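pasting for ref
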Amino acid sequence: MKNKNFSPEKKDRVKKIRSIFQGIILFAILVFIIKALCTFSVYKPYTLDTISKNEKSGFIAVSYFGVDRTGDDTLISTEALEKQIKALKDNGYVTITQQDILDYYTKGKALPEKSLFLLFEDGRKDTAIFSQKILEKYNYKATMLTYADKFAKKDPKFLMPKDLLKLKDSSYWELGTNGYRLEYINVFDKYSNYLGRLNSVEFSKLAPKINREYNHYLMDYIRDEHGIPMETYEEMKERINSDYKKLSSIYNEELGAIPSLYALMHSNTGKFGTNDKASEVNGKWIKELFSMNFNREGYSLNLPDSSIYDLTRIQPQAYWSTNHLLMRIWDDTKKNTEFVTGDEEKASKFQEIKGQAEFIDDKIILTSLPKEKGLIKLINSESYKDIKISTTLKGNVIGSQSIYLRSNEDGSNSICVQLINNMVNVIENSNGNKNIIYSLDLSDKNKDKKVDIKEPGSKKVDITLIDKKLTLAIDDKKIVEGLKVNNESEGSVLLESSWGNYGYSQRNIADDVYDGVFKSFKVTNTNNEVLYDSSLKGVEAVTYKVKTSFNKLVNWFIKNL
């Protein structure tokens, strides 16, 4: 039946209003994108009042693999990058230049008390696009590293010479190089199968199956599956020489000069290669072509007694929280560090005992101390006895996330549900003595148990503790019901994150800080009265949904324009 009140004229008005509304939204998105992509300011160097009187203060170097609007397992998202850059800025860090480093080591020039040298590796276009506005906003300068062979390949994912010259002209960038090409030799997979020599694309496709046993193209002799060199010394030397000659030719031709800064891939040995003979060849070229070399990864601090050709940087992983980066820098420098808290109201419900906690949206991100743990206590929970707890544990698989019930101040007397390295344990602690009363391996028996430390985790956990019985469900499936416990005392609720040893990793193997992530953490009593709930509710939930939807829309436009 037709609505007589809905005339053709009214339909036309509705269409016009809809079109105008859609046009406004599209215009707003275009303005947002233009502002995100265009530069309207000039970098201002640090001022003299920031100069340190302590000649040994040195500088930290932070290097990102790349940036993407939404991020992935390697590229950091723009949101995460901005949070980290803001935290560094709030902690008083100012960026220094390549010339500052050169003068520091060759002329004894003093640096600011909190000096930061910022790098972005691999020379990706999306890195430049999505980090540019962040650099402008916080008045930070960075070095863009590139591979020379990308210029000839005209790969649209990577910056070309004209792009690099524009970046340099913007005043927020300097140029550096990762070398001629990214290629791997002497590669084995996790099952000890010899894969030999792989280019970066081949390596990336096979990465989930590749063990740590591989080497960068310049680091060693090319060897067979038995480790026996397949080339003579002269052949190895000529192969490495050829890379540096090509690098020199391309940069001189395309950019007019070779960048002063080099980041050798992937030495991390204190030399210029894993093989002494290869190291000698690399060392000769590095000192002939470049003014400085970042030779190692895993430690952020460079001091006066460091070699300008053996500098070190820290490479934040895409999954790191802001406090994860700050914790690593604090451990390296031992300088006063202000960690981020997030939602102050939610944070006020907890007492920090160890580590650092950030409350963001519906998540509690608990960052451990290096090689240690993070521990927080739900305030006013000392008298909790019979309770229910539900949460989703989103920390990486390698590591430990624990929930303590009926606990004293440090967990030495408690009942603990722990998820560690894909194992779930129920532990009864009595005067510091641990008794595992239940354990289950959650690993997929059809998959390789060798898990990379960056592999994300997600396990929904529901705990019910009444009298002397505990019931536990994982991902809505009961795995144990009515488990007998001895501790009947009232006590507190504690959350813990803990470093789970180094684990397996193709990169960043020395990371000893862990982020436990407790999403939608909820505590109720047996009458279903809510005692604590970190879930988003009301206006907060609506705002989060609108923000998420808008970001998805912007992402779609960016990828499809």
